[in-house]
Amino acid sequence: MWIVDRRLHLPQAGIGKSEIRIILVGGVKSMECEKVRDRFSALLEKELSPSDESVVREHLAFCSECQNDFERFEKTIRWLHVVEEVEVPDGFLSGIYKKMESRKREGLLTDQVKRRWLNYPASLKLPIQAVAMVTTICLVLYLTKMMPFEGSRLKVVEQTKAPHSEAKKMGAESIPEEMKKERDVLQPPLEKPGLRDNEPARAPVSGAQKAEGAFVPKVIEEEKRALAPAPKTERAEADTLHSQEAWKAKAAPSESEKMENVAAAREKISFAAKPPREIILRISDRAKIVSQLQELIKGFGGETVTAEENILLASLPAASFSEFEKELNKLGSSAEPGKRLLQKDAQEGLSAPAGVRQRGVEEKAKEPARPAAGSESYITVRILLRE
Amino acid sequence: MQKEVIESCKAGNEKAFREIVLHSQRKVFNIAYRMLGNKEEAKDLAQEVFLSVYASIKDLREEAKFEAWLTQITINHCRNRWKYLERRKYFKSESLDDPIETQDGEIPRPIYDPSDNPETLYEKRMIQEAIQRGLLKLRKEQREMIVLRDLQGISYEEIGELFQLPIGTVKSKLHRARMDLKRILERVLH
User: Fold this and answer.
1) Integer Rg of chain A from CA
2) pTM above 0.80, yes or no
3) ipTM of the predicted structure?
4) Cα–Cα distance between B75 and A115 in angstroms, integer?
5) Given the DSSP bridges, would you call strands A378-386 and A277-282 parallel, antiparallel or unpaired?
6) Record: contact B174-A41, CB cut-off 8 A
7) d(CA A333, CA A292)
8) Cβ proximity of B110 and B96 under 8 Å
9) Domains and CATH numbers, chain B
10) What are the residues whose beta carbons fall under 8 Å from the beta carbon of B14, sequence distance 6 or more?
11) Among residues 145-204 of chain A, which lie with CB inside 8 Å of chain B?
12) Residue B47: its chain A contacts at CB < 8 A?
């Protein structure tokens, strides 16, 4: 009966044929009521079309549940509409002005905090800024590993620890004959050292040497200067001496001793490594001449380095070398100056190749009070004895 | 609100600003009160709204849209304040079923039906209180809809512009909000 009644109202309620099946199954009431309840607002605000409004009103007249629901809805809306506005509390406007003032003060305070640093006295700001700057620079240098003292210290340690290997490296470098000749040709005259300073290095300088730069200690520079142009035959001697000194340096416990040893080693190396002047001495009695030569060398303040079968290597003070040469001519029957393998001016020590010499000159400029001892005041001479 | 007043306020005239406050304070304060349910909070929020107006009225391009612009600022402030109060569990104890605290202790909340005699002052006050509590039980979006439409009488078109929603959507959302409020109030008032 209930379903039949519903069916009778279907066309009027605006429900389509597709919905009839659902109605027959048993969902009639919920579907229709839901549709009607969705239209409560529109019904109250008179936004439904006349036909829709009549359908909804018919449903409300028939369905008591929807009717009650609509009444409660209507009451709620009515209450909402009668809700009175509350009065604005006293002091509302003055409160706004107070807040404005406080905001302005806060803004000023914020600005003051920002500018506080600017207001500090210079006596306080400058030291802080200076310390900050120095700290920053130190940090940057440290990070980029450009600390000069650390670099030089490292080099000294390297030298004292492994001079032999470096000397070997130097010795192992094969210098072509053509380059030797070229170096001879390019030997600078003593009067014009300034011009040489600007010349690019022509001698083969190893990458390690180049990298050492301005921070390499003086002794190392001396060694390099002495070693670089040394002929192969002399390098062997230099190697020996170098290795001996290296061993000494290794054995020495203290750093100052190490430094002294290294300096002495460089002196000897430079002495041994200098390209000697070669003199061929024609003799009749070898044993006699050798003893005479040794006495002569001693007489001129020199020293006999080696005395082999037909070769005598000696070191003589540069000042007395010319005298020694005269005496040597007298001693030998036909003493003749030999071909100089490498031009060597012991007084100026400029036999090093241009690149190395340039560094030497720089160092000289840096250290004007350097003593003129050792390698600079002696000339090495090789006397070849021929019968 | 007269266009000249707004322009004068834009130029930094404090008298014009005062006039704007006096003209709009009731609306702003009531929206804030209905949204937050507390007069002190509403007062503070409404003052903040006018501070915002003072600071940003220069950016208002169309003086004719001042009311909508002011409502938008108020709603935005309410949303922010609601979030702030929610984080501090401000609304946790607000329940229509909460017992009433009296000097003799807590007593159950009586159920009234003011429809029987709606004219009495007491019943009016009860309705006001129930509505306010019911509003606070709604979701934020629903509360905004009811406050703006049913309490402030703002048109569907304006609400649609404020929330950037089609009018149909505004209507359906408002209807669902009303139905939810009805269900909430049924437990207390009917």
Assistant:
1) 54
2) no
3) 0.82
4) 37
5) parallel
6) yes
7) 14
8) no
9) 3-87 (1.10.1740.10), 101-186 (1.10.10.10)
10) none
11) none
12) 92, 95-96, 99
